[in-house]
Each structure stands twice: as C-alpha cells, then as structure tokens.
Sequence to fold (435 residues):
Amino acid sequence: MTYFPNVDKVLYEGPDSTNMLAFHHYNPEEIINGKTMKEHLRFAVAYWHTMTQDGSDPFGAAVNVRTWLTDDPMETAKNRVTAIFEFLTKIDAPYFCFHDVDIAPEGNSLKEFNRNLDDITDLIKAKMDETGIKLLWNTANMFTNPRFIHGAASSPNAEVFAYAAAQVKKGLELSKKLGGENYVFWGGREGYETLLNTDMKFEQENSARLFHMAIDYAKEIGHQVQFLIEPKPMEPTKHQYDFDAATTMAFLLKYNLDQDFKLNLEANHATLAGHTFEHELNVARNYNALGSIDANQGDVLLGWDTDEFPTDLQAATLAMYEVVENGGIAPGGINFDSKVRRSSFEMDDLFIAHIAGMDTFARGFKAALRLKADGFFDTLKAERYASYQTGIGADILANKMDLKSLEQYALAHDQITNQSSHIEYVKSKLNDYLV
Fold:
C-alpha cells in the first residue's frame, strides 16, 4: 500500500525551484570535503512526531489526517512501519529514531509489550535490510505511563525502578537487533516538584545506578553503542536533573559516566534553559561530549517546548559551526525532533516540513564551512586574546606567575587600555555568510 501517493522521491531542484516537494538547498549527493552532504549531515526522522503525533493540543482535538490509523493498535503499528519506510525512502533520509511506545502498543502487561516490540521490530528489520536505512538511536519512554508519575530511575518506588530497568534492557536488545548506533536516555520525569519531600542525592545516585547497569548490559550482550543523555530543564517536571549541558556533564563526571556517555542536544531545550543552541553545543564540545543533535526550534514568545521545524538560518549556521569544529557529528546525527504545526494537517505536510528543515541545515552547514574556511571566528578570537601570546600573558599561560609576581606586575602596569569588540560590525558581517 502507498501512504503518500502524491509524492515521488524528493529531488534536489536548486534554489530557484518553486516546488514545495523538492529540495532547494539540500543536495544529498553533493561532494563536500570528500563526503556527500548526506554523509555529513546524517539526517534522521523522529518516529514519534512524524508517525504518532495527531495535531491535538491542550485546547483542541486531533486534526492530523493519517491514513495508517485503524481501530486495532497492532494493525496501526504495522501500518506505521510501512508508512515510515515509504516516507524515509522518498525523502532520502538515512536514519530514523524511536521510543519503544512509538512503534508498538504496551498492551496489558510487560510481557505483552515485549512480544509486541519483537513482532514490530521484525517488520522494521526487514524494511531496514530492504532499504539500507539505519537506526540512529532508540530509547525507552519512561515518562508517559502513569506508573512514572514520580519518575523512573529517580522514582521513590523501587518497583518502578525495576520496571524502568526492564524497559532499558529490552531497548538495548532491540538496539542490537536493529544495529542502532546510539542509545538515548531522556529523563522526562527525572526531577522534582518540591524539595520538601525529595532526597535529591538519593534520586541522582539511583539514576546513575541505572546508567551503569545499561553500560554493563550492553557489554554483556556485545553491543557497542554510544550512550547519550538529552538535557532539558523543565516540562513536564518542574526541575529536571538533566537541566542543561553543563549540569548534565557535572552529573556524568561525578558518577564516572563521562567515558561512556555523550550528549544529545536539542535546540528548543536550550531555549527553555535560557541558552542558545550553539551555547549548549559548545559546552558539550568543550567536554568532548557532543554526541548528537535534535533539530528543531522554539518560539521565543512562548515558554514551552513547541518543537517547530527549524527554519532559522542563523541558528542553524551557528549550530553547524560547532559541529564543524567538532570534526563532524558521527556516530550521532541530526534528528528532526519536530512536529508540523496544527494548521499543517495534511499528509504531504510531513514532507514539506522535513524539506524545510533539511534545506535550512544544509544552508547552515555550507555557511559554517565558509566561516571556517575564511577564519572569521578564528581571527576574531585570536585578536581578542592576543595579549596572552606575548609578555605577561604568555607567562601566565606557561604557569610562570603566581599571585605575588602578578601583584608586582599590576603595581607597575596599572594604567590599562581595553579594545572595543565592535560587536555590531561583527554581527553585521556574520549576516554576509548567511546568504
């Protein structure tokens, strides 16, 4: 069955094309620095937003037209497998991502859930073998079901911890079965509402305990996978333990997890944490922990996770600059954790939205390469920190100075002149690289 009869394979037609169902800037086969753009960007489609999101919001019922829906949850799950691989093939996306509950219904017991997962992943694996499309990452949804009302690994209920561990175990087995390149943890309810009844230290220790169990089990089953944690500051939990990149790195370092985990960073989560996306990527990169990207954007006028498809060229460029500086993103990728707007409810809007995001990141990637080739940021930074290349600055970096010797220097050189950053000019020049 064809779920997208109006769409043939999406092709690159160039920036002058007016075809909504064509790439205008993303040319997957274009060779850049010895690799195709498809290999550089490693785009992935999010199963949850693309296949299961229905367009409802707190003020309105579902509106999305989705022809794979039936009254039978397992039949719908099977239809979704056919539909997503048709979508992935037609839009030429090399990867996809999923939560366990996205692909199969939970049923009435954990045993039934596992059986459903086995059946659906058999179908998924057959499609992967047929198409060559790969699994970027999967994860366990440990936040939607009411059992996780107080958290999963951080829950005060040991039985919930055990159930969460069972989901992670199954998730790692599915990851190996499908050749997953990464495995993600997102602590949707790993946090607290109030410290009045919360032992934060205990809850974080338990979270770390589960992560170490996951590392051990992956080794036990012979699955070499990159573990990722996805930070988010709030929503649904008032204060989540993985607040931002810096907070998450502090956690990983404290509990000796930094050698096995990197970060999966999302633009909209950065916004909620009061940061820019490039800030979060830079923090991760400074720790050698930039693992993968969830590409979307928020609305600065709205204080929640809107998960819009990314169309902000400057934000995409600055994000891709961090990826370029990182030497690439593999084995991670760029996953469109993005959902169509409620008013974009037709089936073909799924293609139009992904094309917009892929074109935006392709343009951002090329702009980032131009910035790097011209040394735009490198020159700015070299000039800004030039005082550390000679004289007292060089002595400081060489650890030749202490507080007493620096005091003596300062007493003799207390007339200080700073240089203007000319930041308005810098920002104006940055715009030249975006067009």
